[in-house]
Amino acid sequence: MKYILFPFKFLYKIYFLLYFVLTLVLFFPIFKYFLSKKERFPTAFKIIRVYSKVWLWGSGIYLRVKGKENILRDQPFLICSNHSSFLDPAPLYAIFDQYFVFTGKKEIEKWPLFHIFYTSGMNILVDRNSRVGALKSFKAMMDVVNEGLPLVILPEGTIPPNAPQLGEFKSGAVSIAIKMGIPILPVTQTTNWRRLQRSSLFKGNACPGVAEVVIHPPISTEGLTKADTETLQAKLHDVINQPLHEKYGV
Predict the structure, then answer these.
(1) Which terminus of the chain is more solvent-facing, meaning fewer CB atoms within 10 Å of its CB: N or C?
(2) Rounded distance, CA 112 to CA 116, Å?
(3) Do 209 and 60 form a contact (C-beta atoms < 8 A)?
């Protein structure tokens, strides 16, 4: 069966790549203008939401969201999602209408065009290979929370090679939540790895379809201290993993 499906997956990957590049090039002048000044960032966020919906729709990917009633309002909080595909940011932008700040790995600053979402200063790059850089990023995250904005962190830090099985969670997400005393909103994206799996052009899953997203009830950090970091991290991992375990047995 996989040999029968191979040409369809291959053609879809080619189409997806071309469609992504074309839409990004078309939107890029708009992004560049609205990302050139901090006061324009909220408008840029709205445009990114439109772009994400256009990107998903044009790729034949449709959202199915469970738990939208759990989304917090009018307060800073941490959005933590698993990371199983390059698609993962798009559903988050499409779902959450409140302006938030995304965090990403420092390598993104080398990506053509796409880097503007981070190098503009709208979002935060994290340099895990530099203690000074990591502390600078942590300070920037604290500033975001102090401004009353939600913050998005993907605790795995990268797409694990055996997704949908979760990778190791980094401690940064729960550390910032505990230090700032903000709730964590766990999110599980269960099918993105099927829509577009991280792999070469000739391997891995790739097909249009449903992107299922589960938004869990928020986890409170009230009264927690640094000593609770590992316990909270394990709880966050278990909550995000639950739908994956039920669906795939991982």
Answers:
(1) N
(2) 8
(3) yes
